[in-house]
Amino acid sequence: MSWSFARDLDSLQISVTDAWKSFDVATVNGNAVRFRVMENTTANWHVHEHTDELFYVVSGAVLMDTEHGVREIRSRQLLVIPAGTRHRARVEGRATLLVIDNIRDDG
Questions:
Q1: Backbone angles phi, psi at 12, to 5 degrees
Q2: Cβ atoms 82, 88 nearer than 8 A
Q3: Which three-class secondary structure state does DSSP give residue 34?
Q4: Residue 53 belongs to what H/E stretch?
Q5: What is the C-alpha separation between 98 and 63, in angstroms, rounded?
Q6: Which pLDDT tens digit goes with each residue over 55-86?
Q7: Do the Cβ atoms of 35 and 23 come closer than 8 Å?
């Protein structure tokens, strides 16, 4: 087995001062892996019709609003939003997370 690269996620987020910043860190089996930093911000409501979306919180906490209610995802927890589910992420304070999906311009 050969390793193609390694990423230090702490070094990516340390200088981020934006309310929302995403870094594409890898592609796995056609899925995008993004490292996201969110601070005191709320995403717009949206739907991904053709792909599930996985959120893994590295640090902090993320509130995930869906048409079914609100779920809090804390550090070291993950949540999968099924395709076709209207959702948005909210953060009070600062959080870092990994987002894995196969979005291809479907909203």
A1: -70, -40
A2: no
A3: strand
A4: strand 53-59
A5: 14
A6: 999 999 999 999 999 999 999 999 999 999 99
A7: yes
Cα–Cα distance between 44 and 97 in angstroms, integer? 17
Cβ-based neighbours of 39, under 8 Å, separated by 6 or more: 16, 18, 19, 20, 91, 93, 94, 95
pLDDT, tens digit (0-9, with 9 covering 90-100), for 14-49: 889 999 999 999 999 989 999 999 999 999 999 999
Q: Which two tokens stand for residue 26?
A: 């890898």
Per 3-state DSSP, the chain is made up of helix, strand and coil in percentages (nearest 5) of 5, 55, 40
The values of phi and psi at residue 96, to 5°, are -125, 145
Terminal Cα-to-Cα distance of the chain (whole angstroms): 36
Q: Is residue 106 very low, low, confident or very high in pLDDT (cuts 50, 70, 90)?
A: very low
